[in-house]
Amino acid sequence: MSTATPAMGRRMSYTRAFLGLMVRDLYVLRREIWPFAIRVGMNPLLFLFVFTYIMPHMSGGAALNPTAQMAGNAGANFSTVLLPGLMAVAIMFSGIAAVALPLAQEFGVTREIDDRVMCPLPIEAVAIEKIVFSALQSMIAAAVVFPLAYYVPSTPVYAHVSNWWFLAVVLVVASLLSGALGLAIGTAVNPKQIGLIFGVVVMPITFLGCVYYPWAALGSIRWLQIAVLFNPIVYMSEGLRAALTPSLGHMNEARVLAMLCFFLGLLTWLGLKGFRRRVVS
Amino acid sequence: MKLLADSSAIVDICGLRKVYAGKPPVVAVEGIDLSVRDGEIYGLLGPNGAGKTTTISIATTRAVPSAGTVQIAGIDVVRSPALARRSIGVVPQYNTLDRACTAEENIQFHCLFFGMSRVEARVRTAQLLDQFRLTDKAKAYPAALSGGLAQRLQIARAIAHRPRVLFLDEPSAGLDPQSRLAMWDSVRSLRAEGITVMLTTHYMEEADELCDRLAIIDHGKILVEDTPAALKASIGGEKIVDLKLSTPDSAGHLAGRLNAVEGVTGVESTADGVRVLARSEDGIIERIVNASAGFGVRDLATTEPTLETVFIKMTGRELRE
Known about the structure:
Strand content of chain B: 25-35%
Largest interface: A-B, 36 and 42 residues
Helix content of chain A: over 70%
Radius of gyration of chain B: 24 Å
Distance between the termini of chain A: 31 Å
Order of helices and strands of chain B: EEEHEEHEHHHEHEHEEHEHEEHEH
Strand content of chain A: under 5%
Distance between the termini of chain B: 29 Å
Number of strands of chain B: 14
Radius of gyration of chain A: 20 Å
Largest sheet of chain B: 6 strands, mixed
Oligomer: heterodimer
């Protein structure tokens, strides 16, 4: 008896397998929609609530925050500074949660990856599918920040999109980048120690990622301003800042896009290498 | 050693060698040649660490050989792994079922991965669930399935895309005897679908019951390859009679007398006495007992040669250490 797809071309076979993997992931995501909603909603909600609702209501609260002053000078406020940063964090967290954590489980306990790589698809494509699906989740997570940033703060957020194409490109590249980051981390770290990455990787790149303050604000700490240029999240934050709140100081758009693409390529390459190493002996 | 690939074989392994790097490097497979014919059930029998899983890993594109080639239905697994995977089904040693999906969905998604349409996938899934008697567990999650049911589901899923070859790595591991028998039935039924089966095992009963042909493998090499019946016959006797003596020193003398008995094909000394290899004939036991009169026979046990006997004969060790 012959196989089910004897005459199917190679490209058709790969496409169907790739789409099949995506369908399965969508199905499972739909089944676990509430945990997903909580995951993408909780962080921006709490952050906005504390920094843009509670603190402005405290007397002298705005004075506690130097970037709020800087934002005030530019005619905006801290909520406006926060918006792109929170979106960058949402995108990055989503990449980690959607790729690195499940990979650790699949490599470690359940070994489901052993079945996934038996698809009639090159091994690298199985990894790429994870990045692509994670990017979809990241974009949803970024989109969720918008309504929260509209309703939660006590002072309004001034977002103004002058270039929709730029925003779209930044969102897509940033989402793919976070998936690639998740893949690189998930394949590099021993599955048993995956919990450590939150303290060792995620927290530092978040706090040093120009999320809660624009890169320009680091001007007074020049050495740090240079050092954080190696952090891909900086470009995600600055890119979103340039797209959404261009009135605030931000990094040059071309530079942001170039570095985002560079990091996407680098992390994807590292992630694919790591994936192959884990899956083929 | 095989010099040319056997193009009529479904699984063709030539000069396979696999060395794992390390200090010191581990040679898992050292020069394996074998061919599996279309439609047969082929076994690799050997103790743990013999190189069975490594051989299967290479054949199923999960490992890259250090030397040698493996061809599945004419496709080189190293050069075209994605293409080769279309013809391969695998049930590995451990449970790789999708824990987030039901039994039914596990099979359905597998069909989608291999290019079937939704309708085809649904039909095929219903057919397989029926064939493997899993229909009432269709909506159950893998965590709720017993070891035997999970194994049956893994087999059903692995053949959903109608591969040419199904690889089973230690299929009996962790199964109770009843589940094992049910699994053997499932494997035998695959022949009717035209699926070739290659399995690894360290249970000689499994190799004996299931396999049309098998290779005994140890330390990364194939020691011997033939049908179970031929392997057992190669022992040189159809009946093995173990005599325990109260004075084992006299074994040598007894051996001489037993060799003269009609129907006896060989005599060996053992720690407790002698082991007699004989043909299955009328009166053979009586003649052996009579010949042993006066030598203080304490106990007598008769067995038939098993694959374990073959293994011990070839390596001096037992299959299960």
